[in-house]
Amino acid sequence: MPAGDAVFRADPAGPTVAALSTIAGVHVWNLLLVGLAERSRAKGVELPVWISSSMPGGDERNAELIARYANRVSAL
User: Fold this and answer.
1) How far apart are CA 56 and CA 49, in angstroms?
2) Domain assignments of the chain as residue spans, ordered by start
3) Given CA atoms 28, 33, 36, 38 in this order, what sign does their dihedral have?
4) Would you tell me which of 14, 18, 43, 51 could form a disulfide with 8, CB atoms 3.0–4.6 Å apart?
């Protein structure tokens, strides 16, 4: 990343915007998630992945996870 992290300057005398570390961090995190999903599938392990409630079956899946982990995570 360049010094200051940002890469776009609309005005040559103005500040830079658009941090690259955010994009890079999200990309690395997604690569990790894909790797975990692939490894768990290969080993026959189901990951406790939350699903958006706007997706079919999302509320039901998330309710199962809440029931499974509520005793370990009090905020659930």
Assistant:
1) 14
2) 1-45, 46-76
3) negative
4) 18
CA-CA distance, 19 to 26, in Å (whole number)? 12
Residue labelled with tokens 């809440």? 66
Q: Please enumerate in sequence order all residues whose Cβ is within 8 A of that of 17, keeping only pairs 6 or more positions apart, or say none.
A: 6, 8, 9, 10
Q: Would you say how long the chain is, in residues?
A: 76
Residues with Cβ < 8 Å from 67, sequence gap 6 or more?
none
* Contact between residue 20 and residue 14 where contact means Cβ atoms under 8 Å apart: no
